[in-house]
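Session log. Operator J.P. requested a structure for one protein chain; no other inputs attached. Running the standard single-chain path with token output.
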Amino acid sequence: MKKIEGIAASTGIAIAKVYELKAPDLSFESVTIDNPDQEIARLEEALKISRQELEKIKEHTKKEIGDEHAEIFSAHLLVLSDPELINPMKEKINSENVNAEAALDAVATMFIDMFKNMDNEYMRERAADIQDVTKRVMAHLLGAHFPDPALINEQVIVIANDLTPSDTAQLNREFVKGFATDIGGRTSHSAIMARSLEIPAVVGTKDITASVSADDTIIIDGLEGIVIVNPTDEELESYHKKQEAFAAQQAEWGKLKDEPTFSSDGEQVELVANIGTPNDVEGVLNNGGEGIGLYRTEFLYMGKSELPSEEEQYEAYKSVLEQMGDKPVVVRTLDVGGDKELSYLDLPKELNPFLGYRAIRFCLENEHVFRPQLRALLRASAHGNLKIMFPMIATLEEFRQAKALLMDEKEALKADGVKVSDDIEVGIMVEIPSTAVIARQFAKEVDFFSIGTNDLIQYTMAADRMNEQVSYLYQPYHPAILNLVNNVIEAAHKEGKWAGMCGEMAGDSIAIPILLGLGLDEFSMSATSVLPARTQILGLSKKEMSSFKEQLLSMGTAEEVVAFIKEKTE
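Structure written below.
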């Protein structure tokens, strides 16, 4: 038995065999062959199996999280069917009498190098597609196991150094009971996706991949952030009981599914959820979400070879609004750059992309991208309770410019006889310290604030949240953060506006009493966090939490804040 500590990224308990998600050894020998036809047949069989696998992965991804995520596999399938790539491999086998492995490697390497050296960013990205699919073909030629999360058909726990968004998107909840990774934190893509999929996850273990093998049974404790390798019979029994207790707790939470959110002294707040695709709405409704506080529209743009059309976007936004009925839906306009690259946009390479050409900065400079999204949103507004917010706003001028474009498109649509709602609130994400500092000025012009703490914390603390060397500085409870949040909430209320929070902090059990006391109106979180948060707020007095406000804001360290809150609420 071995116990490994990490970060609790998604709640729950999972017990299953290990599934190692790692690249196979694809080393091979180049040999002279006597039967070229036999080698070509081997190559064709490997290509056929690879195509079949990618079709399955594409269909699974489409079913589980939507068309936009499945498009990346359409691109991969095109590569595997491209005669410009396949025919040179066959010709090399015939003319040079080399084995299929050597022909595949030589031709793939030639194309990869060629695409990598092109000036066009989109074409350079095609090198990655060729590399991915030819690795799959090579694995089949060598008889090596090529791991595919979407093809898992038995109960397992996935172990990996890290999981990309596309890896996580392929996980089948029926069979993948949880996962653990070497790296990552609560705000990493894999952690956020795990909460959307409602499977337990522990990340940032540092060495889980080196500590397990395929024959091991492990326990993922997503409540405590612990992984237990090859547990004893006593530990298994203990964790089975813990699983049952957690299931009973979930059943209790479920009783509050259709209830509004009140504190113990009768003060109402709103608990809403974050989503990435229309398919996520079901999870919001099943978990008692009172609305959507953040619809990350960039997922419509990712995994594709070109920009989504206005019509495609309209249908996605309309779908979400119709599913939510009269419940509010806050849509964030396109937020790319930083860690979210789109190959076909040819974004510049930057030394510090998180502080660079991203989000509203990109959109204001590229109206041909921004205006179709605004039109699609405005058209969809007739189908529900839409609110629009602009990300990464640093100056009043940026907000005014973005809103002017929105109003321009609104008037154009109305002039064409298109029905557009007249009740669309327009707000901003507060994720830059400068915006939080002058929130009073912004509050006179915006309809609402939504505080994006994931970025606000890293910008305030000057600490990259994905950098493990400075992860200790990612402190949601630091008094500097609390003072900025308080400043935003007070500014909103002074102007009769509302303030929400859509960062991971909004669903954090330590932060919730603090935010309630600061007067936060809307808490937006992962759908699975809504019912636990509602239960917690039901047991908290807003008046009492508010009485601690000045004391908390004057503290010097995050540790002092945490100790104080635990003492007052436990």
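Operator note: The mean pLDDT is 89.
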